[in-house]
Amino acid sequence: MIKQHRKGETEGVKRDSPRFLTPGAAELRKMQLRCETERSSRLRKKSGAWSFYFQFMLFLSFLLAVGICLNYVQLHTEINTREQRIERLRDKLEKRRSENDAMQNYISNAVSPDEIYQVATKELGMIYAGEEQIIHYKRAENGYVRQYEEIPKH
């Protein structure tokens, strides 16, 4: 049973329901509902296409962001590896330079001209050449000397 409260109002029945409307208004209301339904289905289809496009673009953006992050990690690792290699090479260079300096000092201290003169004259019996033993000559060519060439007589 339907209870009536005030003029024409009933509990549990909407004003837009077909039982409450007049016959012409009911037809009009059905057409409005059909139009709204068609419009909402068109919007759903449209929004479905947009939704797919949006999801696709979101997925591509995600892949791009992941790719950029992976590239960053790779570059960072490569930079760290190169820095470590440079540091090892610098240490190696410094070690080689110190070894080179030590050898240079050893050679400089081990072979002095005075020591060479002492060994040559005392141990090997060598003497300096006298003035009469030195022969000076001039070559016509521009200073090139062949080792096994005859020495010219003056």
Q: What does the model show?
A:
It is a single chain. The chain is an all-alpha fold and 154 residues long. 64% of the residues lie in helices and 0% in strands. It is built from two helices and no strands. The protein has helices at residues 23-110, 113-123. It is rod-shaped. The N and C termini lie far apart (155 Å). The model has no long low-confidence stretch (mean pLDDT 79).
Topology summary:
Elements: H1 23-110, H2 113-123
Keywords:
single chain, mainly alpha, 64% helix
Strand content: under 5%
Number-wise, the strands total 0
Spans of 5+ residues with little confidence (pLDDT < 50)? Answer: none
Q: Helices and strands, in N-to-C order?
A: HH
The averaged pLDDT comes out at 79
Radius of gyration: 54 Å
Give the helix tally: 2
Give the CA-based shape. rod-shaped
Helices and strands: which structural class?
mainly alpha
What is the terminal separation in angstroms? Answer: 155 Å
Helix coverage percent of residues?
A: 55-70%
Most strands sheet: none
Brief overview, please?
The chain is an all-alpha fold.
